[in-house]
Amino acid sequence: MLRRWSAPLAIAALGLGSLIAAGGPAAAAPVAHPSGTTLTRPGGAIRGFHPGGPMIRAGSHTPSQGRTMEQESSNWSGYAQVAGAGAFKSVSANWTQPTAHCPSSTQQYAAFWVGLDGFNSNSVEQTGSDSDCNGTTPDYYGWYEMYPANPVYYTNPVSPGDSFSASVTFSGTETYTLVLTDHTRGWTHKQVINEAGFSRSSAEVITEAPCCTASGGILPLADFGTINYTGATGTKGTFTNANAERIIMVDGNGLPEDSTSRITTPGDFSNTWIRSN
Questions:
Q1: Facing residues of 142 across strands?
Q2: 218-253 burial, b if ≥16 CB within 10 A, otherwise e?
Q3: pLDDT tens, 13-63?
Q4: SS3 of 56, please?
Q5: What confidence score (pLDDT) does residue 20 get?
Q6: Which has the minimum average pLDDT: 174-183, 212-221, 245-254?
Q7: Residue 221 in 3-state DSSP?
Q8: Percentage of residues of the chain with pLDDT beyond 70
Q9: What class is the 37-273 domain?
Q10: Distance CA 254, CA 250 (A)
Q11: 3 state SS of 150
Q12: Which residue ranges make up each domain of the chain?
C-alpha cells in the first residue's frame, strides 16, 4: 500500500483517485495545493478525470521487421523503456504543444507526458500538458500527477506551438522531482515529492486518451494533428528502437486511433491522430 506523499510548502496530501487497472476507490479532494496550481481542470471539472494513468493493454505482437516489442493499448501511444522493479530513475523529453481541432460540441481530450511506471504497474509519476476540446473551444494546460493521487493543474497560460520540456527523476530512497517548462511562455514548475513504494519498472514518453467517463471508460481522443517528441531519454539512455517498446493506441474494434512512428533519430518520434475512440 502506497503511503501518502508530502511536498514542500506545507501542502496537504492529495487524495487517491480511481484506480484504472486495480479498480480502487476514490478519496476526498484535498483542501490545499501548491502555489500556481488548481485542482479543477481548465475548461471545467470532470468527475474522476485523470490526464494520465497506467497503460491499458489491448494486445501485443512482435513485428517481423523490427527488434522492438510492439504493444497495443486502449489509452497510450508512444514509447516505453521497461525492466525490473527499481530499474528506472529518470525520464525526459521535449515537444511542441499541438493544436486541438474542435469541430463539434463533443468533449475530447489528448494528454502528452513523460513519466515513470504505469507500463506494468498501477501507479505513474508523471508531468505533461493537454490539448483538449471543451465542445468547440480548445483547452490547453500543464499538469503533474502522482497517480493514483489526483492530478494537479498549472494555472500558467499554454498555447499551441509552445515549446515544452519535461522530466521526472528519482533520488535517495523516496524523492521524486517533476519539472515542466514552457520555454515559449517562460515558466517552469518544479515539484519535489516524497513517497515510497512505487515500482520504477518503466520510463515512458506518451500520448494518451485520458480516463474517465462517468462509467469509468476512456475519454474520446481529441484531434491533435501530429506531435513530435525529441530527446526522449530514460535510465537506459536515449530512446531507440532497440531499447524502447513501441505502443500503438487502438479503439474497441482494434483500429488505430493514432500512429506511432519508428524512432529514426535516437530520442525522436511522432504520434499522428487518426480517430477518436
A1: 129
A2: bbbbbbbbebebebbbbbbeebbbebbbbbbbbbee
A3: 333 333 333 333 333 344 457 889 999 988 888 888 999 999 999 865 444
A4: coil
A5: 33
A6: 212-221
A7: strand
A8: 85
A9: mainly beta
A10: 5
A11: coil
A12: 37-273
Cell output for 118 = 504505469
Whether the per-residue pLDDT at 112 is higher than 80: the answer is: yes
pLDDT at 65 over 50: no
Cell representation of residue 210: 485520458
C-alpha cell at 212: 474517465
Choose among 113, 239, 116, 238: nearest CA to 165.
Answer: 113
pLDDT digits (tens, 9 = 90+) for 165-189: 999 999 999 999 999 999 999 999 9
Grid cell for residue 76: 497510450
Specify whether the CB–CB gap between 111 and 52 falls below 8 A.
yes
Query: Number of helices (H) and strands (E), helices first, in the chain?
Result: 0, 18
Q: State the amino acid at position 222 in one-letter form.
A: A
Could you tell me the three cell numbers for 266?
535516437
* Surface-to-core class of residue 206, CB atoms within 10 Å of its CB (0-12 exposed, 13-18 middle, 19+ buried): buried
Q: How far apart are CA 140 and CA 48, in angstroms?
A: 19
Residue type, position 80, single letter: A
